[in-house]
Amino acid sequence: MNINLTLLMQAAAFAAFIWFTARFVWPPLMRAIENRQKQIADGLAAGEQGRQNLSTAEKRSADMLAEGKAKAAEIVALGEKFKSETMEQAKVLAKAEADRIVAAAKAEIEQEVARAKESLRNSVADLAVAGASKILKREVDAKAHADLLREIQQKL
Predict the structure, then answer these.
(1) For residue 122, how many other CB atoms are within 10 A of its CB?
(2) What is the largest CA-CA distance in the chain?
(3) Is residue 1 part of a domain?
(4) What is the DSSP string of 8-38?
(5) Are 152 and 125 a contacting pair, CB within 8 Å?
């Protein structure tokens, strides 16, 4: 192998190429690679953060759902309690109304019985006067004997 000027020039050109590449091409290329690596690392970190946020959101939604179900159950229980209280109040009011109606009916019946007794007394008194007048074969004056008739009515 013969070392001549061509080989030396090729070696010098190669050395210049290496120096030029190391000085002007290699640093921007390394910055681009480092930026890309940083972007990938940031993307992976963001993906991990997104997974954590999703996990947190799922847990929060499950907690909110459980809380909503608990509140719904509480509202249903409160509604049931209100319903039973309302029914009890309605029963008490209905019982009071029924007792009032029964008392009014009893009072009315007593009044009717008293009227019937009074009517019966008057009828018996009239019959007694009619019977007495037939027995005595004369007319008994009801106005003249009003005290006697009242006394008979009291005894009946």
Answers:
(1) 13
(2) 191
(3) no
(4) HHHHHHHHHHHHHIIIIIHHHHHHHHHHHHH
(5) yes
Shortest CA distance to 128 belongs to which of 110, 153, 109?
A: 153
Residue 2 lies in a domain: no
Assign 146 to helix, strand or coil. helix
Q: How far apart are the first and last CA of the chain?
A: 169
Range of the domain at 50: 7-155
Among 16-20, 67-71, 95-99, 128-132, the range scoring the smallest mean pLDDT is 128-132
* Nearest to 156, CA basis, from 127, 125, 132: 125
Residue 140 is which amino acid?
A: V
In this predicted structure, what is the pLDDT of residue 6?
Answer: 87
Is pTM, for the whole model, over 0.85? no
